[in-house]
Write a structure and sequence with these properties.
Blueprint: H1 2-46, H2 54-61, H3 67-102, H4 114-128, H5 138-158, H6 167-188, H7 194-204, H8 213-232, H9 234-241, H10 244-249, H11 254-276, H12 282-294, H13 298-322, H14 331-350
Helix pairs in contact: 1-2, 1-3, 1-13, 2-3, 3-8, 3-11, 3-12, 3-13, 4-5, 4-6, 4-11, 5-6, 5-11, 8-11, 12-13, 13-14
Amino acid sequence: MLSVNNSIDEILLISRKKVKEKYTRKFFILAFLFLLVIACFILGCSVGPYNISFVDVIKTIFGGGDSSMRYTVIELRIPKLLLAILVGIGMGMSGVIMQNLLHNDLASPGTLGVSDGSSLFVTLYVALIAKKIDQPILLPILALVGGVISSLIIFALGTKRKQPISSTKLIMTGIAVAAAYSAVGTLLMFILDQSQLDFLQRWQAGELWGTEWEYILILSIWLLFFGGIAFSRSNKMNAIALGYDTATGLGISIKFEFLLLSFLAVAMSSASVAFGGNFFFLGLIGPHIARRLIGHDNRLVMPASCLTSALIVMVSNILVSSVEIFANIPTGIFISILSVPYFLYLLLRSN
């Protein structure tokens, strides 16, 4: 009897050791991704039309450097890189939520048409009300309203009462609704003056336009609030990922969690779209890369997806600003070009 108990204790000890080693490896991956973000940030401050050495970048960040270095690094490059990180965080986290809720690899703010609803409301604001963006706090609010309305329309058309949610039907409905939004947005282009048209074209292409410190502060607070709530529910998302019936059996209110998490995802993606432009594929590929690196535990996938998505935006921005062949290509379009092959791979695999 004693030997049996010893064997059981030994098995449990080995099991705990393996779990500890597995999570230690995953934390190392997270730490490595974080260091990569820091490295890309410093690289982004260094390269461009006017190259600055890494040493001078560090000195400038901490108050040194001459006036031209301070202007280039502090006023031009750091705000854009911070915006790239924030957009990556918002789109990466919202993509994780939507893919978990719908149990579908192709779900994201872009494929569900949420981003297009946000885009349309911002376009309406610029076209019909504002000659210039003089109230930045309105942008995420309008984008949120547009995203929520879009989500309600898509869920109303793509679901039926007393029937299970079909993620494929929701995605197809989202694509159809997004096409309608795009048509309306194109129609609005004909009533814009040249300055409005230039702004919207850059914004819709993912130009990372909102680089003023006021915009960055608003987006930071917005994502910290909604992202914090979303992360606090990562354990419940783990249960939902196992299946709606399993989650219900564990005492989770599926309807409440679905509505709350959907709203949080729409809020974060809408704000990212408002200040960064329409990064269509970012909320799709960021979570996938994160899961391949770190597994399926949402407590780890959510920060990994944020870091991965931030890296994608920053690297793309560095390439379009420092490599001559990519010059003048908006960051969002560059990300889309790189992401299309991966999207096709996911589509073929899902079929």
